[in-house]
Amino acid sequence: MSKISKKLIEVKVFLTLCRFWKWTGIPDKKGWDFIQLGISASLPIMLLLATNHFSTQNNQQDALIKYLEQMSQLLLHNKLREGESEARIIARARTLSTLTNLNSIRKGLLINFLAEAKLIEKDNPIIPLKEADLKRANFRGFTLKRYNFKGASLNKANFSQAVLNEANLNAAVFIKANLSGAYLIRADLSGANLKGTNLKGADLSKADLSEADLSGANLKRADLSGANLKGADFTNATYLKPEQITSACYWQDAILDKDLRKKLDKELKQ
Asked: Are 96 and 131 within 8 A, CB to CB?
């Protein structure tokens, strides 16, 4: 193909595009017209997103209602609380599967139901929450003392101002969770993963933090008096003061930053 032929094709394409541009009427539009055009074009997208959002919300609500109905059936007619029955296996399976499909608020509501039904008691949990998906769950201000969350996945969950006194939180995973102002008096947090958690103003007095990982945690004004810190990892923890550490038990066996350890050694020599 010669250079002239290629040029003619390019000109024809250009003229065709110009005619199409004029046909759309866009060149005659003014500022407000473009705004209206943008709104008109975005409305179907907005409606689609809104429809999907409400559809998801309805599905989650239906899933929670169905779960509560099934659990009520197991409690009333299948003797869920009695012995190691098949009902317990079914109840745990339904609990774990339902939790994966709920948002933060509904996860909190489901756990609140289990607590009030006495199905997650500290010493004898009928439905163990080990590996339960409670990530981002909202427990803000909840009273969950003496309940069993052993081994649960609680990453980024909100426990702000929650009452978890004497709860079993052994080996639970709280990475980047919000525990600010939470009450964890005598709670069992042994082996728990508390990396990057917000424990600002939390009451951890007499809690068991042995072998817990608190690296990068915010411990501003946290009460550690009488807590068991044996083997606890406080590497890169923020706002942690020597007096907080020395108010606890077995702090000598905790893993501390070098600077903090030096301050403690200096104070002990004085």
From this structure: yes
**For residue 208, which phi and psi values (nearest 5 degrees)?**
-95, 105
Candidates 149, 141, 99; CA nearest to 122 is: 149
Residue matched to tokens 């239906």: 62
Among all chains, which residue has been given the structure tokens 């000598």? 252
Nearest CA among 187, 228, 198, 231 for reference residue 213: 231
CA angle in degrees (0–180, nearest 5) for 235-250-217: 25
**CA distance linking residue 41 with residue 233, whole number of Å:** 55
The Cα 25–Cα 23 span in angstroms is 5
Q: Is the dihedral of CA 27, 32, 34, 36 positive or negative?
A: negative
User: Going by C-beta distance under 8 Å and a sequence separation of 6 or more, which residues neighbour residue 145?
Assistant: 163, 164, 165, 166, 167, 183
What is the crossing angle of helices 104-116 and 86-99, to 10°? Answer: 160
Tell me the pTM.
0.78
Residue 125 · residue 170 · CB < 8 Å:
no
Instruction: Work out the angle at residue 120's Cα, subtended by the Cα atoms of residues 172 and 150, and round it to the nearest 5 degrees.
Output: 15
Distance CA(157)–CA(183), nearest Å, equals 15
- Residue partners of 71: CB distance under 8 A and separation at least 6: 80, 91, 94, 95, 113, 117
Q: Give the per-residue pLDDT at 8.
A: 46
Q: Is the pLDDT of residue 121 over 50?
A: yes
Segment 62-73 shows an average pLDDT of 94
86: number of CA atoms within 13 Å, CB side?
Answer: 2
